[in-house]
C-alpha cells in the first residue's frame, strides 16, 4: 500500500475521477466544524492545515460498493495568511485570507497516477470577504471565496498542479449558544460552489451545496469538544464530457468528532476526524485534519 503525499489545498474532493464520473470543484467538505460562524481572529493570523484521507471503496450511482484496485491514501498540507478588523458602522468583524498551495504530487484523473518529481504552485484560493456578527446567543457569518487556475493544467497530464478552471463559493451560516456563558453551541454552515469552464476540455463542473455542522461544549473558555459532520450534494449537471445521465448526481455525507484548544499565547490547535457514509458516484473513506492557527 503506497502513501501519496501532496502539498495542496484540499484538492481531494473532486480529484479522483474515472471517465464516467463527474468533474467536481475545488471546495473540500469539512472545512468548518465547531463554532463555524464565530469567524477568524482580528489582526494577522497564520494558519496551517494537514489533511489525511483514506478510501478503499467506491460508491456508484445507486450507492453500491466496488473495491478500488488501489486504495486512495493522501496527505495534504496548506498554509495561508488571514487578516481581520472591526467594521464599527456595520457592527461586524471583517476577515480576508490568501492561501498559496504548493504540491509535489499531482493527480491524473483517468488513472489515479501521481507524479512526485516536481514541486509547483497549485490553484490559489482567496477569501476577499468574510463578515461575522457576534450577538449574545448567536453568531452569523457570510463569506465569498474563489480559486484561480494558477496551477499548471493539461488534460490527461500526470504533472498537473491545478484543475484548469475558476471556482467561486458563497457561504452563510450561524452558531447558536444555549447558555449565557456560551459553553454549549450548535453550528450550521452552508456553502454553494459555482465552477467555470475547464480549459482545453471545455467541461464545466456542476455546482455543489455543502452543509457543515457541529454541536459541542466549551470548557474553561479554551477547550472545545463535540460532534461534527458534513453533507455534500451536486445541484446542477455537468456541461460537456462523457458522463451518463444517471451518473450526474454525486453526493457524500460524513460524521465525526472535533477537539480544539486555544493557548494563552494565541495558538489554536484543532483535530477533526470524519467517517464518510452514503456516498454516490465517488470514493467513500475516512478523513483526519490537523489545524494550527497563530494570531499575532
What characteristics describe this protein?
single chain, 296 residues, mainly beta, Lipocalin, 12-stranded antiparallel beta barrel
Model description:
The protein has 296 residues and is mainly beta. The protein has a single domain, classed as Beta Barrel (Lipocalin). The strands form three sheets. Strands 2-3-4-9-10-11-12-13-14-15-16-17 form a twelve-stranded antiparallel β-barrel. The chain has a two-stranded antiparallel ribbon with strand order 5-8. A two-stranded antiparallel ribbon has the order 6-7. The chain contains no helices and 17 strands. The chain is globular. The termini are far apart. Helix content is 0%, strand content 56%.
Give me a quick take on this structure.
This protein is an all-beta fold and 296 residues long. The chain is built from no helices and 17 strands.
SSE layout:
Blueprint: E1 4-5, E2 43-59, E3 65-87, E4 92-99, E5 102-103, E6 107-108, E7 113-114, E8 120-121, E9 124-134, E10 138-148, E11 167-177, E12 184-195, E13 208-219, E14 223-234, E15 251-262, E16 267-280, E17 282-295
Parallel strand pairs: 1-3
Antiparallel strand pairs: 2-3, 2-17, 3-4, 4-9, 5-8, 6-7, 9-10, 10-11, 11-12, 12-13, 13-14, 14-15, 15-16, 16-17
Shape: globular
Task: Provide a count of the helices.
Answer: 0
| CATH fold node name | Lipocalin
The major pleated sheet works out as: 12 strands, antiparallel, barrel
The H/E string reads: EEEEEEEEEEEEEEEEE
The CATH class label is Mainly Beta
Q: Report the C-alpha radius of gyration, rounded.
A: 19 Å
Structurally, the number of domains stands at 1
Amino acid at each position: 500500500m503506497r502513501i501519496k503525499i501532496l502539498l495542496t489545498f484540499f484538492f481531494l474532493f473532486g480529484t479522483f475521477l474515472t471517465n464516467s464520473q463527474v468533474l467536481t470543484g475545488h471546495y473540500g467538505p469539512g472545512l468548518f466544524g465547531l463554532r463555524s460562524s464565530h469567524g477568524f481572529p482580528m489582526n494577522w493570523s497564520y494558519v496551517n492545515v494537514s489533511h489525511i484521507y483514506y478510501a478503499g471503496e467506491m460508491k456508484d450511482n445507486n450507492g453500491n460498493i466496488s473495491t478500488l484496485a488501489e486504495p486512495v491514501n493522501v496527505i495534504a498540507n496548506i498554509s495561508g495568511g488571514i487578516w481581520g478588523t472591526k467594521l464599527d458602522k456595520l457592527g461586524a468583524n471583517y476577515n480576508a485570507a490568501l492561501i498559496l498551495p504548493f504540491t509535489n504530487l499531482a493527480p491524473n484523473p483517468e488513472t489515479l497516477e501521481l507524479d512526485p518529481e516536481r514541486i509547483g504552485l497549485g490553484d490559489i484560493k482567496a477569501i476577499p470577504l468574510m463578515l461575522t456578527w457576534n450577538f449574545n446567543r448567536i453568531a452569523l457569518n457570510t463569506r465569498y471565496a474563489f480559486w484561480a487556475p494558477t496551477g499548471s493544467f493539461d488534460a490527461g497530464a500526470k504533472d498537473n498542479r491545478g484543475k484548469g478552471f475558476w471556482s467561486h463559493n458563497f457561504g452563510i451560516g450561524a452558531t447558536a449558544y444555549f447558555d449565557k456563558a456560551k459553553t454549549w453551541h450548535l453550528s450550521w454552515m452552508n456553502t454553494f460552489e459555482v465552477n467555470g469552464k475547464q480549459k482545453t476540455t471545455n467541461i464545466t463542473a456542476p455546482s455543489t451545496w455543502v452543509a457543515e455542522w457541529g454541536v459541542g461544549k466549551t470548557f474553561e473558555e479554551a477547550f472545545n469538544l463535540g460532534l461534527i459532520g458534513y453533507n455534500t450534494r451536486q445541484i446542477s449537471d455537468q456541461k460537456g464530457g462523457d458522463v451518463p445521465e444517471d451518473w450526474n448526481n454525486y453526493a457524500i455525507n460524513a460524521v465525526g468528532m472535533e477537539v480544539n484548544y486555544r493557548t494563552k499565547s494565541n495558538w489554536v490547535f484543532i483535530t477533526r476526524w470524519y467517517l464518510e457514509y452514503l456516498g454516490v458516484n465517488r470514493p467513500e473513506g475516512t478523513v483526519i485534519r490537523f489545524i494550527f492557527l497563530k494570531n499575532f
